[in-house]
Specification:
single chain; 229 residues; alpha/beta; Rossmann fold; Alpha-Beta Plaits; 2 domains; six-stranded parallel beta sheet; five-stranded antiparallel beta sheet; elongated
Length: 229
């Protein structure tokens, strides 16, 4: 599949596993750069000439208005297994582009939303994944600043994995002795001791004051466990 970098020579992208990123604002550009750094092929699309000048030569880039289904057809969008709509502030454009991608039958359509109402609309028209960057970041930071949590990843249906310091009541005891799962309904997946490799947890794993725990479970139950002194 042939693509062009705006203002540069032709370049060739194979669409197998490639990611199409539409909208090169802060979200889209950061995502595209990271995908590129991870070794995945990426094609970016933007309609603003000033933004195009800014990114010309740095990533494979084409100029197109993706609210027009014909423009998506011309750039070969249906050949990409993954497409990300980084357009957020222009709600009408975001909805039209997402709808066009869904109509093309793309396997995974990811779309950025700026509000819960925007997210609801995107889901209704068929977006497979909807991202609320500010809301997600705000929730994550709230968990980090309000307790012992050092990192926090929430998945669907209230399932969460956290990195945290151990509560005092677990220090000096094995996981079998502490009975954390029985008492608190959460599971210690592993333990990272200073200067040591990550260790998957067993009943015989003993917790020291310097250890970091990787714990999974229901978000509410994890918050309660992390609040233990």
């Amino acid at each position: 599949m042939e693509r062009k970098r705006s203002g540069t020579a032709d370049t060739h992208l194979t669409s197998d596993g490639a990611v199409l990123v539409i909208g090169m604002g802060r979200f889209g550009s950061r995502l595209a750069l990271t995908v590129d750094r991870l070794g995945r092929e990426v094609l970016t699309v933007e309609k603003d000439p000033e933004v195009i000048r800014r990114w010309s030569g740095r990533l494979p880039l084409v100029e197109a208005d993706c609210t027009d289904p014909e423009a998506l057809e011309q750039l070969g969008a249906r050949d990409f297994p993954i497409a990300v709509v980084g357009v957020g502030t222009a709600l009408e454009a975001s909805v039209l582009i997402t709808s066009n991608l869904v109509d093309l039958g793309i396997e995974q359509v990811w779309a950025k939303a700026t509000s819960s109402e925007h997210a609801r609309i995107l889901r209704r028209i068929g977006a497979h994944q909807v991202i609320l960057p500010e809301a997600d970041a705000g929730e994550r930071v709230a968990h980090l600043v309000s307790g012992k949590l050092l990192d926090y990843i929430e998945f669907e249906d209230g399932f969460t994995i956290v990195k945290m310091h151990p509560p005092k009541e677990t220090i000096g005891f094995t996981l079998g002795q502490s009975q954390i799962r029985k008492k608190y309904g959460v599971t210690v997946i592993g333990v990272k001791s200073p200067g040591q490799e990550f260790e998957y947890a067993t009943e015989e794993t003993r917790i020291s004051p310097q250890d970091l725990l990787i714990v999974s479970g229901n978000t509410t139950l994890l918050d309660r466990f992390a609040a233990r002194p």
